[in-house]
Design goal:
With about 400 residues, the chain is mostly helical. Helix 4 packs parallel to helix 6 and helix 4 packs parallel to helix 8. About 65% of the residues lie in helices and about 0% in strands. It has two domains: about 260 residues, Rhopdopsin 7-helix transmembrane proteins, CATH 1.20.1070; about 110 residues, no CATH class.
Amino acid sequence: MDQECIQFVPFSQYDWTFARQGWLPWNPTAFCLIASVCAVAYWMSIELLLLVYITFKRHTGIYFWSIIITTLGIILQTTGYILKSFENSWPVVLVVIICKVGWVANVTGFSIVLWSRLHLVVRNPRILKWLLVIILIDGLVCHTPVVVFEFGLMTKHHDTYYRPMQIMERIQQTVFTLQECAMSCLYIYHTRKFLKIGYPMQTRKVIGLLLLVQLLVIALDAVLTLFDYTDKFTLKCTLHPLVYAIKLKLEFIVLNQLQSLVKKGLTPGLGAAPNPAEESFKHASPSLSPSPSASPRVTTPQDLEGQKQRQAPRFETGFVTKAGRTDVLEVGEPSSSESMTDSNESVGEDMGRRARDSDQTLMGDRGSEEHDLRNMVGTADDLGVEREDDMERQYLGRWSGAQR
């Protein structure tokens, strides 16, 4: 057996740097620490796969597959690291490939998760396009040298690649940390922006949760960056899969919060928007509300001719659309007074003015409005989606295809 494997090294003198080659030296504390962290990373990854399968209504879309790829990358990276550190019988090239494929998948995959989540709140395609370009460029520039240097460290020219790997490892960790923080901050900003349009009272709670999650993510990234800059590379590689598994769990906390808001109808931009005219009717004064004991009045043809087609504005993410429905009384429905009509129209005009001032965009064509709304909230299972990059909206939105 290799002497390095059985040699005992005190934990205070343990070598966590790039300088070490081969198996890890024996220390019960170090081995238990590494085994525990890897076991938790495995457990959280398996749990995440089950959560993704159960949570998402459709097993397709960029958001869904980016989470799946990131989770599988965590499993691969953990497996490759264990084989590299504890199992010397596997081919070195195969072990490095497993480890680095998992690393690329979970790092860039998590950035794609954050990018695809931005589709829920950012309506500017130029911003989304440039963010995707930045993610791809950063991945190509940062991943490629690290993978090359990692193969070099496994050869007899270890000392030649040690210093370049040390520098590049710190650079890539800093770049990916800043990239993830920038996208998370952009998400918080745009979420706060459209929440304030229709429901300002809910803004503080949602933004508070997002800020808390972001602070936890920054703290985890800071720990990894600290290990890199103090040459504790082995310890950083041990914690890296666990950190990204925790990040994905935090992502599900945000997802569940958004889902809860949609079900309660509190977030117009993420689900089926309420009709402002109907909402104003609910909160109108008692003198304007029909009495429960009032007998229903049948609408006559003359009444139908005198009624106007009223379009109540609905708020979607960053723009205003029209409800596309006619407030025409059906047979058996109670009629409303002229004062109620004026009240509903004034409320609709006021809300439309507020949204127009905030976004300066008012959609006018009904066909394009329905197209945007379909892309926003998804479609029924038997209907197609024209834009694949908006597929993830289906998991947070509601769609009633039978009521079109």
